[in-house]
Amino acid sequence: MHNFSQLLIVLGIAGLTVPFLHRFRITPVLGYLLCGVLIAPNGPLAWIDREVAGSAADAAGTITMPEDALQKFAELGIVFLMFMIGLKLSINELWDRRREVIGIGGAQVVATSLVIFTFARVFGNGIEVSILMAACLSFSSTAVVMQLLEEKKSEGSAAGKLCFSILLMQDLMVVPVLAMVSAFATNEGDDLLLPIIKALVIGVCAIALIFVIGMRLLPPLLRIVKPHRRREWLMSFVLFIVIGSAMLTEYAGLSAALGAFLAGLLLAETEYRKDVEDIVAPVKGLLMGVFFLSVGLGVDLHEVAEDIGWLLASVIGIGVAKAAILFAVARGFGVQKHAAAETAVMLGQCGEFAFVILTLALAEGVIPRGDAQFFMLVTALSMFVTPFVTALAPKLGKLLKR
Fold first, then answer.
1. Cα–Cα distances in Å, from 8 out to 305, 394, 402?
2. Given this model, what pLDDT does residue 241 score?
3. Which domains are present in the chain?
4. What pLDDT band is residue 323 in, cutting at 50, 70 and 90?
């Protein structure tokens, strides 16, 4: 019954607490983050319950389920978010954005990584740790930013399209970063080029395989399944395609989210695009809520209180540096000032892939545990404050547009 009580807490937050907070103009993203902080095992509710009960037992109103179980649901949230993004695009539209994806997105990652690497070296970190810090902290949060854009109906704006293009490039850049972690762990740090090239080749082959199989097999499979007769058939088929594509890209060393995005692009070319979107949207919304809840659970207020000065300095410093670099890069590519400013403000946070990279680096012994935990906390806090910061982006854009 313990697992049912944990599930009841999650469903109560999704179905009661977050809608209640939304009445006070608190966005669902921020609502889930706040609830995660409150019900964490070391959060305020747990502290109050233990003080009243006078014991160290688990508090009744907190999440104590295994971290791996919650993390799996959180990862599924990102997977379905990327699937829905792909479903709203088309292959031709994605090709039209290649300049923003490769040009602006690639330049932003390289420039931001160089700046963070320089600061990491100045503060006495080793070369390998500095490289990993630079790489993972240069990424922004696809989950937070795209969800906020969706809530504000701003995906089609100039800033929204630019945000998506840059975030897509960052997702692709995860491949060489994960290859670097493996190379560092096997003492191949002096020869990084070979594992990175190998990872990229495998990744390109996986993407090509998904596209070829999808373009050839999806239309006849849909005709065989005949999903227009029963919606549950279409639901099962879509889940199979999304999760299968995600597993294939993850097995090839890419992110699972990228595979789901490709599946969305392919299904967007079929006649069932609108039906698929109507079916998957509620599932995506609930799983995304679990993701934001897990981020809130990762904010330990005791650790924040102990290192509050360094944490605030890191969150503010990284955010300001990333925003300034992105604004300069976007302007260099001819983006209008107001759109560049809005995009820079919205992408100033650290992203969820930092958790993946830091966790792998910690498991491989590449980065000290203290450093990994500190930057995980920095990532969680920067994602937590994003809804507050992004509220300023449209106002700044309008000011510059005048």
1. 30, 37, 49
2. 86
3. 1-65 (no CATH), 74-401 (1.20.1530.20)
4. very high
